[in-house]
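Quick check before the chapter quiz. The format below is the same one you will see on the exam, so make sure you can read both the input and the output lines.
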Amino acid sequence: MKVNYINEKKMSLLAQSSIISSRLSYYIPQVNIKYANNMVHNIVKDLSEDLNSRIMITDINGKVIVDSFNILEGQRLNNEELALALIGKSTAEQYIIPKYGRVMYVAVPITNKGRIIGAVFISSSLEDIYKNIKEIMKKFMILSLLSMVITGFISFVFADIISTPIERLTEAVKRMAQGKFNQKVEISGNDEISNLGKAFNLMTTKLEQVDKQRREFVANVSHELRTPLSSIKILAESLIHQEKVEEKIYKEFLKDIDSEVDRLNRIIDSLLSLVDLEKENLNLDYQITYVNYLIEKVINSLKPLADKKNIKIYYIEREKIQIMLDQFKIQQSLINVIGNAIKYTPENGEIFVELYSNSDEIIIKVRDTGIGIPKEDIPFIFDRFYRVDKARARKTGGTGLGLSITQQIIALHQGRIEVESRINEGTTFYIFLPKKAAVNI
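Here is the expected output.
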C-alpha cells in the first residue's frame, strides 16, 4: 500500500511538473519583462498552493528565478535532481530530512523550441501520506477487530441460522478490503440479512465498474502520453547517434518532433478541460449569446482546414436566436463537432450546419458526407479515449477526448447531444440546448 501511494504521488508530481514546464516555456525567455515575470510568479504561486508544495523555477545555470516561498530567488541550487533536469532528464527521488521528515524532490526540464532553458523543481512533503497510511491501517485493524467481535457474538447467540450468512458477508468484505471488488454473496430469504446481501452485491457491482473505469482511464492516459514521448525519444536519439546528418533530414525529424509535442499539448489540454468540467463547484459563465454569430465565428475559424480538403461548409440559419449560454464552452463544443466532421470527411465533401428551434429547445445540426460510424461503435463514441479507427485518428491528430468533453459541456447546460450515422454516407450530430432564457429579437 505504501509503495503504491508513494508511486502515485511521484507520478502525480512528475505530471504536474510537466504541465508547469509546458505553461512556463513561453514566458521564461521573456522573464526580464515585467508582464512575463508577473505571469511566471502568479502561475507558480497558484500551483504551489494547489499542490501544497514548494515550487522553484531556475534558469539553465540553476539560478532560481522564482521561489514560491520567496527565499532562494537569485541564488543557485546545487541539487542532483535539478542537475539532471538541466540536461533533459525528469527525475523524482524521496529523502528523509531531519527538520522536515520525508520529502520528495521532483525536477523537470523547461524547453522552448527544442532547447532546454531552465527547470521546474518541486519539493513536496510525504508526511501526510505516511500519516494517512498509518491512520488507515489503524482504522482497518480496529474495524477488523470490531467485525470479528461482532461476528463471534452473533454466531454464539444465534448459531448457524444467522452466523452462516454473516460469515459469508464478512469474508467478502475482507476480500474487498484487499482490493478484490468482484465479490458476491448468496443469501436467501426476505429478512434484513438477505436485503443486506442484495445491497452488498449491488455495491460490489458498482465498485467493480468504477475500479474498471479508473484502471482503463489510467491505462489510456499512460498510453496516449507514452506514444508521442516514445516517438520524440526515437527521433532525438536518431539525430544524436548519427555523426553526419543532412540539414534536410534534421528539419524533417525536428518537424516530426514538433508535431508530437503539439499532440502531447493537445492531450494535456483536453485532460485539463475534463478536470475543469468535473469540478463539483464549477460555475458556467452564462451570458446572452447571439447563437447565429457564435456558429458563424466557429465555421470561419475552421474554414482554412476545410479549404485544404476542398470541403464546402453550408450554414443554414432558419431563425435568429439569442439565449443564455457559456459562450466559451459552447464554442469549444462546436469546434469539436464541426472539426470532427472536417477530419472524417474525404476531399471534395460537404458539411451542413443548421440552426433552428422547437417550443422548448434550440437545435444545432451538423451533417457531413464523411466516412460514417459503424452502428456497433455509436454507443461508445462519447467515452474517453474511444476511437472508432485508431490508425485514422492518429493520422488526423485525434485524442479520443473531444466528444467526451463536448457531451459534458452540453450536459452542464442541461442539454443533450445525439448522433445518427451510416458507413460511407455520413454522420449527423444534433445538439439540443434548453430555451429557458431565450431573448426575442
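If your answer matched, good. The longest strand covers residues 101-112.
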